[in-house]
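Morning. Coffee machine broken again, so started the prediction first thing and wrote up yesterday's gels while waiting. Chain of 141 residues, entered below exactly as on the submission form.
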Amino acid sequence: MAAPRMLVASGSLDGVDHERFAPNELFHEAVWTKVVLTQQDVPQNFVTWIKSWGGECRLEVRITARLLAERRILVTVNGKLFEGDSESTSDLAEEKTESVVVPRGQPVPFRMSLFNSGILGGGGDSGTIDLTFTNSIAEED
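Came back before lunch.
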């Protein structure tokens, strides 16, 4: 069995609700979370952030981590940007899934940008996931 590893994700979530005739509505929130991984090759969903702003935009972020050989961690980020008539809209503007391998002892920056490029009502809205992942030994309490 692999030694337990701690994955820390820290950074920010940002959004722009583009307004044609008024100032854009902006969203910014610092985020931080951690998970301890003890079993190799077992994916673990460890955080979901759902943030809304501007009355019509929502950013959903889901992060999965999996402990690999050589104490590396595979991190998969799924990001979704919704834009519609309300913050609870089901109108998906863009979805992306990207993965990075986080070696032990070396921070790995990660950025994902999502856009609503629709011409009618809502073009120009965006969401950005800006994180740094670190992989360290899990200390016992």
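The first strand starts at residue 5 and ends at 17. Going to sketch it on the whiteboard this afternoon.
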